[in-house]
Amino acid sequence: MDFDGFKASQCLLQEAKAKYDQFFDPEDGQPKFFFKISGEAKVLQQAAAQSAVVQANPPSSLHWYFMQELSYLHFSSRFRVSAPIIRTFLQP
């Protein structure tokens, strides 16, 4: 299992996503068709797998950082249901 970063002093695992807004419709914020049928599922699977690792290894925690707003809003909403232990942040 890979993570983009780790802060040992906080037992904090980190994941960063940049420039994902290109995969979303700027008018309604929804994933574009091609991303909906392939890319989104991969991101959600990654989040679920990382969440399982974190849940099995207390007191670790997991933060995901998004560079752009549309992807941040979309995945923050999706993670509330599919991976609620992930805290998301918008970091332009």
What does this entry look like structurally?
The chain is of the alpha/beta class and 92 residues long. It has one domain. It contains two helices and four strands; from the N terminus they run ββαβαβ. Strands 1-2-3-4 form a four-stranded mixed beta sheet, covered by helices on one side. A hairpin with a 4-residue loop joins strand 1 (5-7) and strand 2 (12-17).
Envelope shape:
globular
Low-confidence stretches: none
End-to-end Cα distance: 26 Å
Helix/strand order, N-terminal first: EEHEHE
What average pLDDT do the residues reach?
A: 97
* Alpha plus pi helix count: 2
Question: In short, what is this structure?
Answer:
The chain is α/β, with parallel strands linked by helices.
Characteristic key phrases:
92 residues, globular, 22% strand, alpha/beta
Topology:
Blueprint: E1 5-7, E2 12-17, H1 33-55, E3 61-66, H2 69-82, E4 86-90
